[in-house]
Amino acid sequence: MRRYxxxxxxxLPATILIVLFFLIPVVTTVFLSLTDISTVTFKNPSxxxxxxxxxxxxxxxxxxxxxNTGRYVGLTLLFNVGMGLVLALLTSLIPERHGDNFRTLWLxxxxxxxxxxxxxxxxxxxxxxFGIISDLTGINQGWINSSxxxxxxxxxxxxxxxxxxxxxxxxxxxxxRDLFYAAAxxxxxxxxxxxxxxxxxxxxxxxxxxxxxxxxxxxxxxxILLLTDGGPGLFKTTVWSLHAYKLALSNxxxxxxxxxxxxxxxxxxxxxxxxxxxxxxxFNFRELVSEPKIEVN
Amino acid sequence: xxxxxxxxxxxxKHFGRVQALKGIDLTLTxxxxxxxxxxxxxxxxxxxxxxxxxxxxxxxxxFFDDRRIxxxxxxxxxxxxxxxxxxxxxxxxxxxxxxxxLRLQRVPKAEVKRKVEQTAELLGIxxxxxxxxxxxxxxxxxxxxxxxxxxxxxxxxxxDEPLSNLDALIRLSARAEIRRLQKxxxxxxxxxxxxxxxxxxxxxxxxxxxxxxxxxxATPEELxxxxxxxxxxxxxxFPPMNLFEGRFNGAFxxxxxxxxxxxxxxxxxxxxxxxxxxxxxxxxxxxxxLLVEVLGKDSLLTLEAAGHILKAMSxxxxxxxxxxxxxxxxxxxxxxxxxxEGKRIQRQAS
Amino acid sequence: MPLLPQxxxxxxxxxxxxxxxxxxGLIWLLLTALFDRVHGLIPQxxxxxxxxxxxWQGSVSGRPSIWVALLNSVMFAGAVAVIEVLVSAMAAYAxxxxxxxxxxxxxxxxxxxxxxxxxxLIIAIFYILRILGLFDTxxxxxxxxxxxxxxxxxxxxxxFFDHLSWEMEMAALVDGASRWTLFWRIALPLVRxxxxxxxxxxxLSAWGEFILPFTLIVSGKSWTLALYLQSFMGESFIDFxxxxxxxxxxxxxxxxxxxLGQRYLLNIYSGGAKG
Lengths: 297, 350, 275
Known about the structure:
The structure holds 3 protein chains of 3 kinds.
Chain A: H1 5-33, H2 51-58, H3 62-93, H4 96-111, H5 114-124, H6 132-137, H7 143-146, H8 148-173, H9 177-185, H10 190-201, H11 203-219, H12 222-227, H13 240-249, H14 258-282
Chain B: E1 6-15, E2 18-28, E3 33-37, H1 44-52, E4 59-64, E5 67-68, E6 79-82, H2 94-104, H3 109-123, H4 138-150, E7 156-160, H5 168-185, E8 188-193, H6 196-202, E9 205-209, E10 214-218, H7 220-225, H8 230-235, E11 242-249, E12 251-254, E13 257-259, E14 268-274, E15 280-294, E16 299-305, E17 308-313, E18 325-329, E19 336-339
Parallel strand pairs in B: 3-8, 3-9, 6-7, 7-8
Antiparallel strand pairs in B: 1-2, 1-4, 4-5, 9-10, 11-12, 11-14, 12-13, 14-19, 15-16, 15-18, 16-17
Helix pairs in contact in B: 2-3, 2-4, 3-4
Chain C: H1 8-34, E1 38-39, E2 42-43, H2 66-97, H3 103-115, H4 122-132, H5 138-148, H6 150-162, H7 166-175, H8 179-190, H9 192-208, H10 211-216, H11 225-230, H12 240-270
Antiparallel strand pairs in C: 1-2
């Protein structure tokens, strides 16, 4: 054991934190979902088996939330990947310096604190005199309330597009220059080069970005919470993860239904675990593990 | 600083399923410089890293004097080492690089300064001490690496291809300098190299490695005069020894060649070797000149005799052209005989 | 791409158009914060300080002072960055450079967590912090935030350690270093670009973090700037000027980090940060 004292020491802090905030929470989520834990029973929950799941099945709002989730993930994904691709292509087709500037501009929404970012959207979409859209269209209204879905998708999209943009840009940069020269010599136009050379080579990055973002969109609710809080009206823009969060943790309802929220979160956790496992399988793992060349610790 | 005896006993090393060392037994006498010579992948660097303690041996023991050290951490072995890439720490100045081993021993500051400056002086890099390694020449980096290895006054000095990244001119002077320092300090040293001229020029004794084994451990002169195996015969000496495969049958017969031997040799299959510089041109073995390479005073001839390709050195003043026919003589006293396993057959009489 | 299309200026214009909303938003924030009154993007009032009253007014409608929130944000972001970088670097060093059983398993596991959407665990994390007695404390949120980004950090740092020279590590061992000394004095200084990249990323990410403190902190005395700004959002009368002031105040350090760390950051955002 003394032989491995050093690696053990190096790995100890990370291991403790990962166990505490990844492993135990996964188990805890499932465990809580099988109890009736709530504000009332927080200290003393009792085992209810699959009751929470049965409750979810018969909940009249669940189909609506399910539909909302699909809509939110699908449309935002489309925007993110599509815009990411457009941005990557456009910024690669103009001189490097300009391209870098535009990519930096698109990183701004990602780097801005979400609360400030959402506040800016609220401002732009507010009634006059602050709201610009009200000014431009001449329809003076609270635009977030009148088109909540568009707002949510755009707000998420402007943050999400930069992820695809950066991945696709580095994929484009990795294409050997000779391919472009060859295409040019063969008489291909820019558009033909993009379609016949670049896009086929971006197949895997596109798949990667799509899978990755599907997973994070399914589970993220930060911007919706801040923009519409799931409204306006009953569950108008409530998605699965937000509903789970609010059931379990929001202070606005009187009784917090921790167990029920955990049951909804369990679905997300299970999906997350499955996708992560697939990700791990697909990933080219071999080349990442080479044997250390030092045998003493 | 006085050197120690370094003794390797039955060193075996496996990397997974690959057997890198099959059993190394060597004893180095105090203050001696021994070269580990061999082609790449022969296990010479592996042996060095086992002595340094970077690798753990699968089996076998290592002793410094009579103390067994193979279970010790590298820091407790009291060795200095110079690496092929020099392995200087790029974020530290040359001074701090050399001082690093002393700092780890918590040597007092003034003492560190004194020792580093003294060692730097010895190696002629006093002017470069405040620079980062990336800003000095390769030769100076190499000296800094040597200084770092020597500053803690180690009992054993390990040199892993220390000169192979230097250009040819500096390499020659660096050879002489390392040799001089090593002699002066009297540290038992091991030099790993694939360059036979380096090994032969610098070492008191040379261990020739083939695949995971020591073929011969001897002085440079012995290696040249009496190679223990065909491997050593073919590896040491430039141009390499000519080797013929055939049978001993009173004389040596190899398809189309018959070379007379002195009496008293056993029969059977084996090898016959002769160095290019030992071939004379007053015999009866017919050969044709295929190629003439002028080396300066002499020329290296590539010859064909009865379907065998061999090399010979021309004699001074000899005029040879491609296509010429020569009559070769292999003097009996210059022949090297090896048995079917490639082991040297001791000459009965010469 | 190596070949510029002839009419690339057209593409430039196109990029300008689709990037317009971002630029507009930034300008809107700046103007709304700096002028007493604006109409859209047109300043109406004076270049005034009315919007900045939160800086000296002690408390705005019962909220804790902005300086408390600022201090909390600084401590939060700073502590998260330090913990994240150190813990990731230590684990990554072991995974990249040391031999131990199950090393490859550990590596696989970290990779898997990297893809896992950690936010789905927030309900359980809330529960666990309650049990640990760390609920409603800054230290609790710090640990959670740093932990959730560990898989990313370990992966990033491992990549940097992988490129160190083995001979240099061997030299350090022969020179008398233990692996621990070697890590601190040789390996860590040499992966400085990695530390800067991860550090900047962690600072920015923690500085902006909203959901975790929102969920795990209740008391005003532990509020971060994110919570401070968000507390204005639910009000029936929204004071855009004041909020823009707070927002600008809150976003300024981000600009600073970003400009300082930009060249290190691009790698991380494309290397698989949660998007």
